[in-house]
Amino acid sequence: MTEASVSPIRTTTRRQETRPEQRIRLRHPTADDGAAIWTLARDSGKLDLNSPYAYLMMGHFFPKTCVIAERGDEPVGSVIGFAPPARPNALFVWQVAVSEAARGQGLASRMIEHLLWTAPLDGSARFLEATVTPSNEPSARLFQGIARRHGAPCEIAPLFEEEAFPCPKAANATFEEEHLFRIGPLRQAKAA
């Protein structure tokens, strides 16, 4: 058989259309979203659950550094964060929650990227910060992946030792040390 007699095999792939009710929309929350954000954190089974009041306050006082993801009318993810007063060129991510139905789709990264370029920093965020416990490998991979995509260093250093937390017996909980992940300087990018 000569090269001329071989015809390429053509396969047609049908692009799967996403119905509008399946698309995930990102927006800044309001205080009215506090209960939904609290529920996402609770249902994650992995996050420290803060007072519902804390989530209401984040939506009310810090909406521009927080995001909620919705599929149709259903909340499927959230990121709560703030710009530390001592480091106004940084975005500190406090909690990331993704519902079980939306996991494995890159939503956590998408929400964080959205905040980096739309938060009050308006794309001028030079650093991304978060704390991660040593046992939270998925979060460590998330932040290290963001650092790689931006070609930025990811410094990891102890921040809060176990001894800094309340006595486990008094708090009716155990606590792990928290390491500070500091990513940057970041390159500028467009909103996700």
Helix content estimate: 25-40%
What is the CATH T-level topology? Aminopeptidase
Average pLDDT confidence is 86
Instruction: Tell me the series of helices and strands, N- to C-terminal.
Output: EHHEEEHEHEHE
What structural class should be given to the helix and strand makeup?
alpha+beta
The best one-word shape is globular
Spatial sequence of strands, sheet with the most strands:
1-2-3-4-5-7-6
Oligomer: single chain
Count of DSSP strands:
7
Q: CATH superfamily membership, which one?
A: Gcn5-related N-acetyltransferase (GNAT)
Largest sheet: 7 strands, mixed
Separation of the first and last Cα atoms: 50 Å
Low-confidence stretches: 1-16
CATH top level label? Alpha Beta
Number of helices: 5
Specify Rg, calculated over alpha carbons. 20 Å
User: What's the domain count?
Assistant: 1
Strand residues, percent: 15-25%
Task: Provide an overview of this structure.
The protein has a single domain, classed as Aminopeptidase, CATH 3.40.630. It is 27% helix and 24% strand. It contains 5 helices and 7 strands; from the N terminus they run βααβββαβαβαβ. The radius of gyration is 20 Å and the shape is globular. 26% of the residues are buried. Mean pLDDT is 86; it is low at 1-16. Belongs to the acetyltransferase family. EctA subfamily. It comes from Rhodospira trueperi. InterPro entries: Acyl_CoA_acyltransferase, Ectoine_EctA, GNAT_dom.
